[in-house]
Amino acid sequence: MKALREAGRHVSRKRVVRLMAADGLRSRLGRRFVRTTDSRHTNRIAPNVLKRDFEVGKANKVWASDITYLLTKRGWVYLAVVLDIGTRQVVGWDVSPTMEQDLVLRALGNAIVERRPAPGLIHHSDRGVQYTADAYRAQLNHHGMTCSMSRKGDCWDNAVVESFFGCLKREMAGDDVADDWREVDRRVFAYIAGHYNSRRRHSALGYVSPNAYEEMLAA
Asked: How far apart are CA 175 and CA 191, in angstroms?
């Protein structure tokens, strides 16, 4: 509604609901749950350094990572993202037909290449086997990042990324089921680069997009 009001439209939530109903429109509903966190391992667990401090502010101070699933005609595929808590911008991601170690390593690597953060950044994730693995921890250490992990079974400790996944699944273009992981990869790129980072307004950012918020910080 913020965008409609800025465009000169005088609307209320009830009016939007009524107009959507008149045109046969409805919000997208969530899909069935698929477990992506396997915490049944003996890997070392980092403490919860972040402690749900999701305040916006400077870029490249806190990143949060997670994995979700997307359905195709050939089965489930997986998306790993790295999101900057301070600006709500998705700074790295990767799509794969399997939920292996390389998936999260590529997403992290893409974020590092894109942003080149200074040492001291806090990296938060769940305690799944992909994020507790030696290879992932080694990458964090190599770039001077402080590892932080959610408490066991507490998705709210990583609520900002969970919220992003909910937005993506509701809003990503394509009402039909994708053919395969490559098509999902194209749709995810279009959504993140073409909409979420550049156009989607966030209440936490004062109803501007992540890109616009970062431009404001740099001004």
From this structure: 14
62-218 CATH pick, 3.30.420.10, 3.40.640.10, 3.40.50.970, 1.10.150.530: 3.30.420.10
Let me know: does 95 contact 189? Beta carbons within 8 Å: no
Give 155's pLDDT tier (boundaries 50, 70, 90). Answer: confident
CATH 3.30.420.10 residue ranges of the chain are 62-218
Helices (H) and strands (E) in the chain, counts: 8, 5
Q: What would the mean pLDDT of 17-27 be, rounded to a whole number?
A: 53
154 pLDDT more than 90: no
C-alpha span between 103 and 70 (Å, rounded): 14
Residue 91 DSSP SS3 = strand
pLDDT in tens, 131-140: 999 999 999 9
